[in-house]
Amino acid sequence: MTTAAELYERVDSVLEQVRPSLQAHGGDVSLVEVTEDRIARLELTGACAGCPMSIMTLRLGIERVLNDQVPELEGVEAVNIDESEVPEEIKRELGLI
């Protein structure tokens, strides 16, 4: 069984692959933690931190890559995105509702 510490290393390695795309647009992502229940908690920074489309970046970009490369993860969440503020049409498009 994969431990949270092992998952942390794998998630961090995958984020290294994603980072150049974010940095090209003035943003970045850091791994805050991988919880014992296998949730990767991320922080979007730079231009991503205040961007209204950061939920799309998280769900369609970062989360998709993490799910493909670290299938043991149970979820991905951003510590600095309030999904309750995401417009309904975007939530529907992302399958959040």
Which secondary structure elements does this structure contain, and how are they paired or packed?
Layout (H helix, E strand, L loop, with lengths): L3 H20 L3 E8 L4 E8 L7 H16 L5 E4 L9 H7 L3
Parallel strand pairs: 2-3
Antiparallel strand pairs: 1-2
Summarize the structure.
This protein is of the alpha+beta class. Helices cover 44% and strands 21% of the residues. The longest helix has 20 residues, at 4-23.
Structural write-up:
The protein is of the alpha+beta class. It has one domain (4-94): Fe-S cluster assembly (FSCA) (GMP Synthetase, Chain A, domain 3). Helix content is 44%, strand content 21%. The chain contains three helices and three strands. It has a three-stranded mixed beta sheet, covered by helices on one side. β1 and β2 form a beta hairpin. The longest helix has 20 residues, at 4-23. The protein is globular, with a radius of gyration of 13 Å. The model has no long low-confidence stretch (mean pLDDT 89).
